[in-house]
User: Fold these one by one.
Assistant:
Number 1:
Amino acid sequence: MRRALVVGNWKMHGSRASVDALLGSLTPAVADATAEIAVCPSYVHLAQALELCAGTPVAVGAQDCSHMASGAYTGEVAADMLSDLGCRWVILGHSERRQYHAESDDLVAAKLTAAIAAGLQAIVCVGETREQRENGEAEQVVGAQLQGALAAQAGLQDLVVAYEPVWAIGTGLTATPQQAQDMHAFIRQSLAAIAGIDAAQTRLLYGGSVKAGNAAELFAQVDIDGALVGGAALVAEDFQAIVAAAG
Ligand code: 13P
């Protein structure tokens, strides 16, 4: 049995005041949720979010981490620093990191190794662009991203994979439930071929314009175990409705 998981990726949004307001509304609203819940604010709001989420069902994670353990890497944040702070989760390989920061599959793999060593639970993101889908390359692209990030890793039993078609992120275009299910089934089948992964137990999240209004039909698909939510995670009642749909 895979427990539903709903994760909010706040991206580069927020202020101390908005974090207070959002978590002040969200944490009581999800107190009785059956789904597992996490929020991933900006690094600078992590300590504040951890304080506000203490004693609630909402776990906290980061949106990235360094592939290096420590040292002279100006501007980087180590996985150990995140776990030392109390973070449980880290998002890796988000398409915005791949697109704007030239993250390769090799770099994502190195970050995953660092995250696992630090005891963080990683959410590895994969997904094709619109052009790749139109060219019929979606499965090939996603398969290569999985292989590139996951092959030869140890400690993958708690891995979470998020399928986020790039063309659906922040665009209001959601993959249809069937499109998402087809890719999730392909991902689960691909994971089964990678050593050290229990594919049947690995949770697969869908991400890309998930809203209160489309969450239930996505979660009804057999291989969709939850969501990685961007814009709708910034509004407490919208995120809470997605969490409720997952329960
Ligand atoms: P939106 O929900 O805003 O489309 O963002 C999805 C996403 O990128 C989550 O990581």
Note: The chain has one domain: 5-246.
Number 2:
Amino acid sequence: MMSDRVAGASTVLPVVILISGRGSNMRAIAERAATGSLPVNIRAVICDKADAEGLAVAKSLGLQTRVICARDHANRGAYDLALANLVASFDPALVVLAGFMRILTANFVDRFAGRILNIHPSLLPKYRGLHTHRRVLEAKECEHGVSVHFVTLELDGGPVIIQSCIRVKPDDTEASLSARVQRQEHSIYSQAIDWFARGRLTLLNGQPCLDGEPMSSPLFIDARGD
Ligand code: GAR
């Protein structure tokens, strides 16, 4: 697997980030990478929407961007194959899904098996899929949170690496919950990527391993005081 060197720094891991929207997770990762505190080199930010806010953010950070739209492809399989080819052209050691809102098929997932991370705004396995903040409020949950997991073919079902839990307050709205969850996202995603980049985190026989030991459960961060 290839590694990069950045301006006199030590070896860093080449990554490609996939986004669909605002790109705040991508920005958090890029800012840490720029300071050298996260040992990754973002070779490209790829987006499935030409007008996504995150694309402008990526460009303003000096990152290389590409757009690949579903409507230009005959079906999901064809799209995922083209997306996989585009990602592979940057030869990443890790693919980071940061708010990439498409369900990926085997054409993509098998190609980068064990090298795709995703962040999902819920305490998985609870609330897979969309509108997690709304569903948490409707269910009158006391706790909510965010999970980082390896991507498998099962939607939001891959093995979880790290989670952060926040308290749901009585006056919370979708917007207020989302803002607090995102604060946690920006820190735990970098943590998982850092472990992977330093070779501390791997997926072995379907199980996340940290420092060579199978993780019996995800690392759990209690941010209920946040
Ligand atoms: C984040 O909240 C992320 O957890 C969510 O999309 C948002 C992207 O925000 N991802 C999913 O729902 C994936 N199932 P961002 O564009 O500001 O990083």
Note: Residues 12-112 form a domain with the Rossmann fold fold (CATH 3.40.50.170).
Number 3:
Amino acid sequence: MTIKAILSSPAYNTQTTIQGWVRTFRNEQFIAVNDGSCISNLQIVVDANSLNELDSKRVHTGTSIRVTGVLKPSLGKGQVVELIAEKVEILGECNPNEFPIQMKKHSLDFLREKAHLRFRTSTFSAIFRLRHLLSFAIHDYFHKNGFVNIHSPIITGSDAEGAGEMFTVSNFDLENPPRNEDGSINYQEDFFGKHAHLTVSGQLEAELAALALGKVYTFGPTFRAENSNTSRHLAEFWMIEPEVAFNDLNDNMDLAEDFLKHCIRFALENGREDLEFLQEREATEDKQKPIEERQTAPLIERLEFVANNTFERITYTEAIDILLNSNHYKKKKFKYPIEWGIDLQSEHERYLVEKHFKKPVILTNYPAAIKAFYMRTNDDQKTVAAMDILVPGIGEIIGGSQREERYDRLLEKCGQFNIPEESMWWYLETRKFGTCQHAGFGLGFERLVMYVTGMTNIRDVIPFPRTPKNAEF
Ligand code: ATP
Ligand code: MN
């Protein structure tokens, strides 16, 4: 049986077998075992009959064991049930002098170096159970709302988006690739007959599907070779991209807000124990930090607040005015300059959500020049129908827009952004054959997991993070 099943409804006085890993072994009598099914351990009570002296020397933190015994109400404090062992089998030994994960507190940096073993800690098992729950919540939400899940390709032949930050996919011998007369690499000879990349987004393909299936979403890995070594960027991350035919920017905002709230509520309802554990962990960590860096409210309270309050909606232009009129700006506390037209820096975004509004904010209608070519031009001709959702502690969690559905306008934008028409012919054709208003957005899955778990480094919410100079494991 799993420990989760036992703890949720213990079948007292019946014989039960469990398997798991030892967390602690106290007084030659009590073994705390965890099997990953939940945050709690099961207490095993052993004696000389169930665990002989020789074997008892082999029980350490990390040892895997199988225990058969009878469940009894526990007399000790800290648990309601315990397993009175009849037989303890040692399945896999764990040398305490070599096993790096001990019961003492390890730093997250240390555990990142031991990513193959960090699942064994309560913190990381809680994070990855919550990550699973959120993934499930996402499929649940879209399925219930009539969306079709589209598997967009991971290898792409289009470099329309973020050309500079894409990884090349090739089976050339890198030492000696075929070359053109001018010395450049001849990608026509390559596997795909062209220069192929790992995708940075499944959006363009999702749009094609939405213009037939109506409501679709993608949920897959995306890759960005951006060399930004921040606590919020990975080179490989998972993105959820819904796309809906006939939606405008307002519909898009409504969908994004409802969707985020659903995911948060789902975690609150189904991942309570893990959230409580992480909340306590955060509170302990916070005590070591200067007051201004501490959380303003406990994790669960923050999540409940987001689930139960409407997001603030303002335009980019209004945001710039707020920033320019802030005391923070007047006291010259922003590092980067502020004027209409700038790409907002993380310090600006965080000021808006954390200091000014103290809640999630949806920023709309950005200057066209700082946003992607496919966003719909507004009537003012200066801005596009973009929307970014910013949340406290993280900054941007969602980026989306109403798409340019007018063929001529889109073609013009391709020209302005130096995107060759030949490479985008298939995308452009959707605007020729039954085009319609449509909108969508991209949610960075790891940013959502960070938000829900309260973890502050994105490397701690994905099992094996890929970042510059780091692809161990
Ligand atoms: P940022 O400004 O934070 O770098 P972006 O504007 O490049 O993000 P988009 O292209 O709009 O991001 O991607 C949509 C979403 O994907 C973002 O809102 C964010 O949640 C997530 N995201 C983007 N880049 C990364 C990354 N390198 N690692 C993890 N998540 C990311
Ligand atoms: Mn963005």
Note: The mean pLDDT is 96.
Number 4:
Amino acid sequence: MPELNAESIAFRSALDVVRSVEPRIADAIAQELTDQRESLKLIASENYASPAVLLAMGNWLSDKYAEGTVGRRFYAGCQNVDIVESVAAEHAKALFGAPYAYVQPHSGIDANLVAYWAILADRVEVPYLKKFEKRQINDLTDAEWAELRQAFGNQRLLGMSLDAGGHLTHGFRPNISGKMFDQRSYGVDPATGQIDYAALRESAKEFKPAVIVGGYSAYPRKVNFAKMREIADEVGATFMVDMAHFAGLVAGGVFTGDYNPIPHAHIVTTTTHKSLRGPRGGAVLCQPELAPQVDRGCPMVLGGPLPHVMAAKAIAFAEARRPEFATYAQQIVANSQALAEGLLKRGVQLVSGGTDNHLVLLDVHPFGITGRQAEQALLDSGIVTNRNAIPNDPNGAWYTSGIRVGTPALTSRGLGVAEMDQIADLIHTVLGATTPAEGSKAKFNLDPSLADRISKQATELLAPFPLYPSVDLG
Ligand code: DSN
């Protein structure tokens, strides 16, 4: 019997301990690995974290309360959490070349709320805000919101429209940011599918926002952040960038100069689990003048920090500082562009005609189906994607006319441009074989034997690229 390596021993032992209490949970954890190993994961916002990142989360750091910031906690005994948070922030600053890093946010939504609060708090008299600083943002009454909005004076936000690829947290009603701000959207030029900076400038001059938000969750192109900062300066707005999707491309040096948000934005938010390959969580990077307000994130906006996740963030940031991460980031984009080319040459219509980043947005309207039908047909064929609205989507945000595909996860597995062409072929075959069920935007017809064949081909394609090759659960 060959000796087991440290990672296999660690995960096997952890599962044995979990199984001794509740076998169903151990089984679900093990099954998740099996399922992920077998599926062609093209969800643009997902990835595979390293075993070191995963293992850094499963420990007693989770037992500690540490509200406050490093050296200024509301609880005693935070000396080890202080080390963890400091090391994570140190790596984040070095990785991104950012003056200040706050690594507590539990998610991208939380990171954006911390940033919004910091921006607004920076614009009003601090004594006034004192009244609210011990409150959780979600507990404010409508009257208190009205009072705050009045005090903030100018609380308009200009962000990317949802159908152009913006995110709910960029001032849309289903998210609390839609309560904090009056939102106006900028979109894309219908002819190019790309941001129309001249229109953005005109809109900013007319609307006079307090905040301009750059960044997206479904826009397949790079963004000129230098130009956006110029516009923000012209109208006296704070420029915030949500780089959750493309943080790995910033860290890996794919987006540089005008396309790197860090030197241009006043404040940048991110998640740590997408192209960055870290644990599920968020972070805020900012210029020094906003740091004191950002530091008030907990308890103003956030619950107690998750020290075990901050530990995993530190590992992920450290990993991303290695030279091989830059190679990985370049490969994400090479793969995405190969996938786009493979789809285009088979006649698939892409929003903006291609991609500069980790994602490709397919317009499935020409196949006569909705995004929802396409998503399920692909899933039935072993290809995991998600439906997404496209600019001016006639099917709205629920059924949609788009499919978003991304390459960070498959690139982590080692797939390259040759495999991307094969994947384009599988996607094209499934979409071409799917027809809508009579009168339905959700139900569809797809020959099960074709779905089964594609699914087998997907599994075969993945076979030379084992997921977590160092982890053998037996
Ligand atoms: N849910 C993330 C995404 O899929 O893009 C953004 O929050």
Note: The pocket of D-serine is lined by residues 45, 108, 167, 217 (CB under 6 Å).
